Amino acid sequence: MATRRQASARSGQAPSDFEHACRHAELEPQPGLSAVKGEYRPGVALKPGHRHTASVDLDACLLASEPTAARWDYGIGMRGESGQERLVWLEAHPASSTGEVQKMLDKLAWLKDKLNQPAFAHLRRLEHEVSAYRWLAMNGAIRILPHSAEARRLAKAGLSSPQRRVELP
Q: Cα separation of 77 and 126, whole Å?
């Protein structure tokens, strides 16, 4: 299987800013949504005029170095009609109880700490300003109600409420 760099070289396309930022952080980006597990891809949609540039599975990339950490799942790069590339962080996680909120906040804290490290600074610059941190809860019940204390905690941290399907950016 060809790497993204090989595919980019063959197609004449330069690697995206997201791909460069991933490699600077010693992460291996994959083309389009291919780093996102197949079972979660149907839950990720793009607004018209946007396309995926690349994705990275943070959880898999950092499992060996941080096996007990509350790792975040995915980073997804996309480009809109303006040509500007943006990054959204996606966590696929159940929302079947209000106790999942603290697990998500722990994962978000881990991600934000990671993004504050110098090697990850290029990724942080690509974050989408409006909603960079998204919670995908495709299966099971969603027990976090829209106006609950848990929903307010998520909003205060900058994390979306759980959604069965996320539309990016």
A: 8
